[in-house]
Design a protein that fits this description.
CATH topology of the largest domain in chain A: D-Maltodextrin-Binding Protein, domain 2
Distance between the termini of chain C: 46 Å
Number of strands of chain C: 0
Strand order of the largest sheet of chain A: 2-1-3-10-4-11
Largest interface: B-C, 23 and 16 residues
Shape of chain C: globular
Number of strands of chain A: 11
Structural class of chain A: alpha/beta
Strand content of chain C: under 5%
Largest sheet of chain C: none
Number of domains of chain C: 1
Order of helices and strands of chain A: HEHEHEHEEEHHEHEHEEHHE
Number of helices of chain A: 10
Number of helices of chain C: 11
Largest sheet of chain A: 6 strands, mixed
Shape of chain A: elongated
CATH topology of chain C: MetI-like fold
CATH architecture of the largest domain in chain A: 3-Layer(aba) Sandwich
Radius of gyration of chain A: 21 Å
Oligomer: heterotrimer
Chains: A alpha/beta (about 250), B alpha/beta (about 240), C mainly alpha (about 220)
Structural class of chain C: mainly alpha
CATH class of chain C: Mainly Alpha
Strand content of chain A: 15-25%
Helix content of chain A: 40-55%
CATH superfamily of chain C: MetI-like
Distance between the termini of chain A: 65 Å
Helix content of chain C: over 70%
Number of domains of chain A: 2
CATH class of the largest domain in chain A: Alpha Beta
CATH superfamily of the largest domain in chain A: Periplasmic binding protein-like II
Radius of gyration of chain C: 20 Å
CATH architecture of chain C: Orthogonal Bundle
Chain lengths: ~250, ~240, ~220
């Protein structure tokens, strides 16, 4: 009798081991927030692991990882910031891949009178402020500046730029009408209830906006690897696509 | 001695302390005599208008200063009552000259100014600040400042209390000079019988917020066995 | 070779000076009312004045944004007369003024309460109106505390970050101040530039304290 009880105790103990919840910390670009939160909810319910997000402009996240912040996964909004971290030898290069793609759009408040808008209209006097994520460092802003430079508008409209800390803040500035227009990702615009797209940058014209993902080297947990794999799965992909991202080869 | 200040049914409540006065004070110098806690300072505050009584009337020289019934209350700055509190309250950031000039009516003559300076012997102090003055000098400056505002009534709150004997002896003549030469009706608060007798013609005795007796100074005070005066106990 | 963000330095200095100047009269006035008078709603005003001190600066910034943004309570009136506040230098000054206001009021109040009421009462018996008493007696005697409050307010305004970044943004050359410029340098990895600006802000703090010492010493002699 005593031996049977002992075996039961050990079995129960073993069964419990994998059920003990693990924590995964994901440093992700702000533009991914809504999709990631939805994915995390489903994943946590299924596996019991806890997903912790640190959402900010990718440049800020890169700096934080350089300074030793405890991230398991880095999901950046551009190659440049991922390269920064890669060069410092902080990510596992084998796990790096371009997971998602995005496009730029110009947005205005939902009740804005602007119609038939094209990029040269940005130079008109009725547009006093153009909200962008900081073009010096935040990917969304860097892309926007690259695009405007390519079509020869940057120097004309540079004085009207209101740089914000991240792309969501740029969207907020447009939603509150404190800026007449803003340049954000299509995915952010789709999310917004009080801003609408007045011009979608065609994929051929716009910069190639990729979202690379990679495992941070200091991460030791299996849970992190599992979540990374989950983000690449068809289930997660469906959520991203639903929000307006594009996945797979460009 | 003509009636000058009427306090009719003046009542003030301060927590558990209650002041009730019904008195007529004449012109000339009257002593307000009583132990500490009797309500002397409170009464001065009421007369100057710095404290509002709960009831009663205050009439000075025929002018109504306060009437609880009709809600009339003349503010302190218009009562024309000079007040020298116990701590003198000289303006520490102003020179003696600026202190003296503070309350002078506009266009008031220089003669009066010089006269006050001479009488109180403070002419040499004009450029100094109050903290550079001696105790006696501060007293005289405070007195001069009040006089220069040409008050109709002067209230002095225990001017000599806290001064040592010799200093007191030296200031009493100045006070007598002010009394005799400026002829401003004065209410002189003290708990010293000697001072009351030396300076005042009439006395109001206050105790626990009530007027105990009132009359000519020599009716209320009798000589002590050793030099000095004491209050005659009236049965 | 580190470069200094001169527009940010000038904006910080000018903005902080203007903020303190704007705060001084209302701040001392409110302090006087709190110190010398009883009135209904006094506790509410005391609380509102202290709020910027105890609330997180970004929370205050958010409140200001909602008030002054183009769709804001006050903002939409101003928009009708073509005045824009958010994302301009005006928002910088307003954020600085709001965050430093409590310092002016609290220091002034303490200083005013320390002035003996006896002295004010005697001034009244000498014929002075409430205005004259306040101007010629109370305020001069409360001078030290009021100046101390102004210096503290100036220092607070110079270092203001959270509310400023929300309501004025971080537009280089236009609304970037010393604190946000340092933040930008750090985020971009320009450590030498950040260090240079940090040295400047320490220098300005020292200068402010020195100025207040001189201001107070001169008058006394």
């Amino acid at each position: 009798m005593k031996n049977i009880l002992r075996i039961f105790a050990v079995l129960i103990f073993c069964v419990h081991l994998p059920l003990r919840a693990a924590d995964v910390t994901v440093f992700a670009a702000a533009s991914l927030s809504d999709a990631l939160e939805e994915i995390a909810k489903g994943y946590e319910a299924k596996t019991g692991d806890k997903i912790n997000y640190n959402l900010a402009g990718s440049n800020v996240l890169a700096r934080q990882i350089e300074q030793g912040a405890p991230a398991d996964i880095f999901f950046s909004a551009d190659e440049a910031q991922m390269d920064v971290v890669a060069k410092a030898g902080l990510i596992d290069p084998a796990t790096r891949q371009d997971l998602l793609f995005n496009t730029l759009v110009i947005v205005a408040p939902s009740d804005s009178p602007l119609a038939n808008f094209t990029p040269p209209d940005l130079a008109k006097p009725n547009i006093q402020r153009i909200a962008l994520a900081d073009p010096k460092a935040v990917p969304a802003g860097v892309y926007a500046k690259a695009y405007l430079t390519k079509i020869g508008l940057w120097s004309t409209i540079e004085g009207k730029i209101v740089p914000t800390a991240n792309v969501r803040a740029a969207l907020a500035a447009v939603e509150s009408s404190d800026a007449e227009v803003g340049i954000v990702y299509k995915t952010d615009a789709q999310m917004s209830k009080s801003a609408r797209i007045i011009y979608a940058v065609p994929q051929a014209d716009g910069p190639k906006i990729t979202y690379p993902i990679a495992l941070v080297k200091t991460s030791t947990s299996d849970a992190a690897k599992k979540f990374l794999a989950y983000l690449e799965s068809p289930e997660a992909r469906a959520v991203f696509v639903h929000d307006g991202f594009m996945s797979g080869a460009h | 001695m003509t009636p000058f200040l009427e306090l009719r049914g003046v009542a003030v409540r301060l927590g558990r302390f209650r002041l009730e006065i019904d008195a007529v004070l004449s012109d000339g110098w009257s002593a307000l005599f009583g132990p500490s806690g009797a309500g002397k300072t409170t009464l001065l505050e009421v007369i100057t208008g710095l404290r509002r009584p709960d009831a009663g009337r205050i009439i000075m020289n025929g002018h109504m200063l306060f009437d609880a019934a009709s809600k009339k209350n003349v503010p302190p700055r218009r009562r024309g009552i000079g007040y020298v509190p116990q701590d003198l309250a000289l303006f520490p950031h102003l020179t003696v000259r600026q202190n003296l000039n503070y309350g002078r009516p506009p266009g008031d003559g220089d003669e009066f100014f010089t006269g006050v300076l001479e009488r109180l012997e403070i002419g040499s102090l004009l450029a100094q600040k109050p903290d550079a003055l001696s105790g006696g000098e501060k007293q005289r400056v405070a007195l001069a400042r009040a006089l220069l505002a040409r008050p109709a009534l002067l209230l002095l709150d225990e001017p000599l209390t806290g001064l040592d004997g010799p200093l007191r002896e030296r200031i009493i003549p100045f006070l007598q000079r002010v009394r005799d030469e400026f002829r401003v009706p004065t209410l002189y608060v003290t708990h010293s019988a000697d001072e009351a007798v030396a300076l005042c013609g009439r006395v109001v005795v206050l105790e626990a917020g009530r007027m105990m007796s009132e009359g000519a100074v020599h009716d209320l005070f009798v000589p002590r066995d050793s030099p000095g005066w004491r209050l005659r106990v009236l049965s | 070779m580190a470069s200094l963000d001169w527009p940010a330095i000038f904006l910080s200095l000018g903005g902080a000076l203007l903020a303190v100047a704007l705060n001084l009269v209302p701040g001392v006035g409110i302090a006087w009312l709190l110190a010398r008078r009883k009135w209904p709603g006094k506790a509410v005003v005391e609380t509102i004045v202290t709020l910027p001190l105890v609330m997180p600066p970004v929370a205050t910034g958010l409140l200001l944004l909602e008030l002054l943004g183009r769709r804001g309570w006050i903002g939409h009136w101003l928009r009708a007369v073509n005045i824009d506040i958010v994302f301009t230098w005006k928002a910088v000054v307003i954020a600085m003024a709001v965050m430093s206001f409590p310092f002016v009021v609290r220091n002034a109040r303490v200083a005013l309460e320390a002035v003996s009421t006896r002295v004010e009462q005697v001034a009244a018996t000498l014929g002075a109106s409430s205005w004259r008493v306040a101007w010629t007696v109370t305020l001069p005697l409360a001078r030290r505390g009021i100046v101390a409050g102004a210096v503290m307010a100036f220092a607070r305004a110079l270092g203001e970050f959270g509310a400023t970044i929300l309501v004025a943004g971080n537009i280089p050359g236009s609304t970037t101040v010393i604190s946000t410029s340092i933040y930008n340098d750090i985020m971009l990895g320009h450590d030498a530039d950040a260090d240079a600006l940090i040295a400047v802000s320490i220098g300005l703090a020292f200068a402010a304290i020195l100025a207040s010492e001189l201001l107070l010493r001169e008058r006394q002699s």
